Structure formats: C-alpha cells, structure tokens
C-alpha cells in the first residue's frame, strides 16, 4: 500500500520494517504516568482482519495502551504504528481509519440517538447511516430517546454504533461489554464476531474477562505488572499445555520426583501417594515413553489438555511458562 511506502522512506532509521499485514505494531514500547513506569518494553503485532484481545487485571496497563494507540498519550520509548502510520506523528491519518469506544469516548447527554448520528455524520468524511441503523436495531436502541435516559451499557452500545459509522478498518474497544446485562453482553459479542469482523474489520479489545477472550479472540496478549506475560494465537494456547497424571506401582522415590521436576518441559509437579500430576508444555506421549523406560514401574497415565482459562489465569498471575 502507498502509505507504507511513504513511511518507510520517511523513517529510514527504524530498526525494523513495518509489516503491511499488520493493523497494529508495538516495538519495544514503554510508557509512564505521573512519573511512574506503567508499561515496559512491549512488542507485539496485530494482524489485519483479526480479533485481538489484550487481557489484564486493573492497573496492568490496558487503558494506557489504548490511549497511546488513539493518540491521547505519546509513547515514552519505542515505536507504535496503527495501520502503517506512526502514532503521534501521523495521527490524523490514523483517526480517519480507526473507530473506538473507550473511556475517552464522549456522548452528549442532551441529544437523542438520531441527533448524535447526524452530528457524527457531519464530522466524518464518509458515513454509512444504513449500517449504523442496522446496529442500532440489533441493540434495540430507540432513535428518539435522549442519552441521559440510557444506562451505562446502553451508552456503550450507542458509542459502538457510532464508531462503526465511517466503516473503520480497525475498531479499538476498551472493556466493550462493561455495564451490560447478560443478554446485551451476548448480543454485543455475537455482533462483533458475526457482523463486524465478518466485514473484514480488525478488532482490538482490552478486557478483564477470560470468557471474552475465549469467545472472540484469534490472538491474545496478557499483561502483568505492565509487562507482556503471554502473547500467542488462541488456538495454539488451547493445546500448548497438558495435565499428565501418572500412577506408579509404588510411591515414587525422591530420586524420581527430582527427575520429573528437572525435565525442561515440566512446569509443575504435584504428588499424592502413588499418583503424580504434571503440568507440562510439549509432547506428553514422548514424556510418558521416556518414563516407562525408567526403573520405576509406571502402571497408568492420563493426558488432558490444560483449559484455556487456566493458561490465561497463569499468565495473569505472572507465572507464564
């Protein structure tokens, strides 16, 4: 694309080449707030057309990341690009291609939904009102009701509809289902997956909810203490780790337990009498074959994939493999 060619010419000193397939690129990105370091040396890429989840607890740095992507806060160090443009230096080009719903989103309480749509259409170079109306209808939002009568969740839904009005290439969402009741929560998720992503729009969302990552994301990055503790494709994470239950003929001696704990792919070892439970990465059957050749009689074994939620929780605790 032409804008990539221009930015490559302008930034010949960059230590990396922008990826044309990337919607978002963070390279050694760090940020501080109030003199306190908040984000430390983050590097990850969001492919175009993907749904990417940024998972973290309160204070992990999710909102700071989003504020940076939207141009509200410059990077302290590193490079941040959105759709090939450098954040802060080419923000006008970014804003024309990005829709967002965040705590920075402002809605005028005294206006009706219809009035907000007209106002938003005047602020954008292009506007697809039939598309906006389709989403308003999906969320059952009354066009002639004033925003001040809406709940927090309904206001978030209005903001989402307006963010989609100019048909952005990238949609950035901060806690997209916060304040929604269970039914509205499901409608928003199904809309984002079945309607928005299906149009080819890249979705980048920050959340505290494991279930949202499991339901929506193609890729996930997990923040812990402002650092990246996990970054991978969700499908890879579903099969990356296994629980292996080993049953010996007799209680395994200390020598065998030390051997198990020293294996490079074994992440955790728990013993209960003759049974040993391992959490491991890598090929479980190869490990079982190795143990069967050892002098301690292995009677039985069972291999079960570690649930995705448990993998994500481990990363949230900063205990990544």
Automatic annotation (TrEMBL):
SMART domains: AAA (SM00382). One of its GO terms (molecular function) is ATP hydrolysis activity. Coiled coil: none annotated. Residues 24-250 form the ABC transporter domain. SUPFAM superfamilies: P-loop containing nucleoside triphosphate hydrolases. Keywords: ATP-binding, Nucleotide-binding, Transport. InterPro entries: AAA+_ATPase, ABC_transporter-like_ATP-bd, ABC_Transporter_VariousFunc, P-loop_NTPase. It holds the Pfam family ABC_tran. PANTHER family: ABC TRANSPORTER ATP-BINDING PROTEIN ALBC-RELATED. This is ABC transporter ATP-binding protein.
């Amino acid at each position: 694309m032409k804008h990539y060619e221009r930015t490559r010419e302008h930034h010949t000193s960059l230590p990396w080449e922008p990826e044309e397939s990337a919607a978002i690129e963070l390279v050694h990105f760090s940020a501080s707030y109030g003199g306190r370091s908040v984000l430390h040396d983050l590097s990850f890429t969001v492919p175009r057309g993907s749904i990417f989840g940024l998972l973290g607890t309160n204070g992990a740095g999710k909102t700071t990341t989003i504020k940076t992507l939207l141009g509200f806060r410059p990077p302290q160090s590193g490079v941040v690009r959105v759709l090939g443009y450098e954040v802060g230096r080419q923000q006008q080009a970014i804003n024309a291609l990005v829709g967002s719903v965040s705590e920075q989103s402002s809605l005028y309480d005294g206006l009706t939904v219809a009035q907000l749509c007209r106002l938003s259409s005047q602020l954008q170079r292009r506007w697809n009102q039939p598309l906006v109306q389709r989403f308003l209808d999906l969320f059952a939002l009354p066009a002639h009701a004033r925003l001040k009568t809406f709940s927090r969740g309904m206001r978030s839904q209005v903001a989402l509809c307006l963010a989609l009005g100019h048909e952005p290439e990238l949609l950035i969402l901060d806690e997209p289902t916060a304040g929604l009741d269970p039914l509205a929560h499901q409608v928003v998720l199904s809309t984002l997956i079945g309607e928005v992503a299906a149009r080819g729009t890249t979705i980048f969302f920050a959340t505290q909810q494991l279930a949202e990552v499991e339901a929506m994301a193609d890729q996930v990055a997990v923040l812990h203490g402002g650092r990246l503790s996990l970054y991978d494709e969700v499908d890879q994470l579903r099969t990356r780790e296994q629980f292996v239950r080993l049953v010996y003929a007799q209680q395994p001696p200390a020598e065998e337990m030390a051997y198990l704990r020293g294996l490079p792919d074994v992440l955790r070892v728990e013993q209960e009498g003759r049974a040993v439970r391992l959490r491991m990465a890598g090929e479980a059957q190869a490990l079982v074959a190795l143990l069967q050749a050892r002098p301690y009689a292995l009677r039985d074994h069972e291999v079960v994939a570690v649930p995705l939620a448990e993998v994500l929780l481990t990363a949230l605790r900063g205990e990544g493999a």
